[in-house]
Amino acid sequence: MTAQFTPAGTLTAEDLGTIHLIGVGGVGMSGLARLFLTRGIPTSGSELREWPSLAGLRALGGTIHMTHEATNLDGVDTVVYSSAIPQDHLELVEARRRGLRVLHRSEALAAAMTGRRAVAVAGTHGKTTTTSMVTMVLQQAGADPSFVIGGEISEVGSGAHHGTGEYFVVEADESDRSFLIYRPYVSIITNVEADHLNTYGDYATLEAAFVEFARLTDPDGFIITCADDPGGRRLAETLRAEGRRVYTYGEAADADLRLTEMSSSARGVRYLAAIDGRSLGEFRLPVPGRHMGLNSASAVLAAYLLELPMVAAETALAVFPGVRRRFERKGVADGVLVYDEYAYHPTSMTLANQTLREVAGEGRLIVVFQPYRLYRTRDLQAEIAEALAIADELVLLEVFGPGELRQPGEGAAALIEAVPLPAEHKVFVDSWEDAPVEVARRARPGDVVVTMGAPPISLMGDELLAALAARAGGTADTAAVVGSAVPDGATAGAESVVGSAVPDGATAGGDGAALGGAAAPDGAAPTAG
User: Fold this and answer.
1) Considering 43, 78, 124, 128, which one is annotated as catalytic?
2) Is 127 a catalytic residue?
3) Does 472 have pLDDT greater than 90?
């Protein structure tokens, strides 16, 4: 059952009074809390584990309760929850019993955007990266935008900021239909592919939701989508036929912002951009991947249409540091480079693995993959298997499917058989602890290893580095990642896990949820960001 949300209206963040967020430790919820606190709004939150983001919230004056209790709501006017919070959560039940205002995270975020020109980024892939790029371009142009992103910009360590400018940049999540709450001035849709069919039922319904999202764009604003993506192209054709302002980007000959001479290497991406035959110059990114080039082009096009100086876009993209869990370098040990990558849909997996091959050069690519959701693994098994076959070696963990019941023959057992790699180059491990051992046995100096997939797998990078270092009798050279420390026993999100290979007590947030939340003790309701 999909929750029903209230569309954005005239309600402002200040109208919410004293705010309490359930599961405040996750990236998405902690970012929203940070936004409220910096606006001077009294804000509290509840959690079950001490997450890195909580210290910053306390420093801003936030009250953090390390329990879930009815008394946490004393003096509260508005309670905010995410899609990962069950409707029978004791604090939600108590909030409704008391007659408090109860808002989904996206509804509270929409209130925070009231009075600003919202730039909303949607799409099956690339939302977080693109939102980060747009934000950095606006910042470089001196626009000081507010933003809330479903991840942390590397080297910044924050996924939210309350700015003084007129723009508010937000990542718009389609997984639970909550992106239909927003009323953007600029809508960016990176691509439209089959996903979250547990919510939509079929692709046609999903595609219709993206069209509906685009129709919510302010008539004085505009819509941006990718001409290279079939779903984006159909979207543009539908909306243009309705007389809406739609602009496209890509390498396609008929794209409004056309990219040429694009190249990608381990050193990054570069391309030339032109609009209506007029050159906008050369753009470079320090991160590899042609898909990264396409994501950045949407930020370039948005800057152009907002009449921002192109030098701001060039400068911002040239120093773009990346986003946590999106091609994130974890470190190197015994000559093996370790990355972490959020991809779990076959298209994004393919793009990520192709890019990692560029980085590996003469070395091999070893993928440690944890599939995300049983329905996706089943319905897209052939496509996921092909994406994994790009690797030289595959270490596969069981599907992470919060709340899902795995039937006989479903999950990793079926997927490992479908991957067209020789038997000696692929292996299923049924416990978390076996994966680092297997990687250390297979990896050679010069290889690249990537942890890929469901949120819990992001916790494994340090363990892989430690196992690789141990075999060499040394220590790992780990990458400095802001906010990546995870306390003992901490978790990634929080829903009950059925048949998932995760560390003791570890769980992950719902589909599309940012890494965060807390593990619930036996019998307690889970939390998530």
Assistant:
1) 128
2) yes
3) no
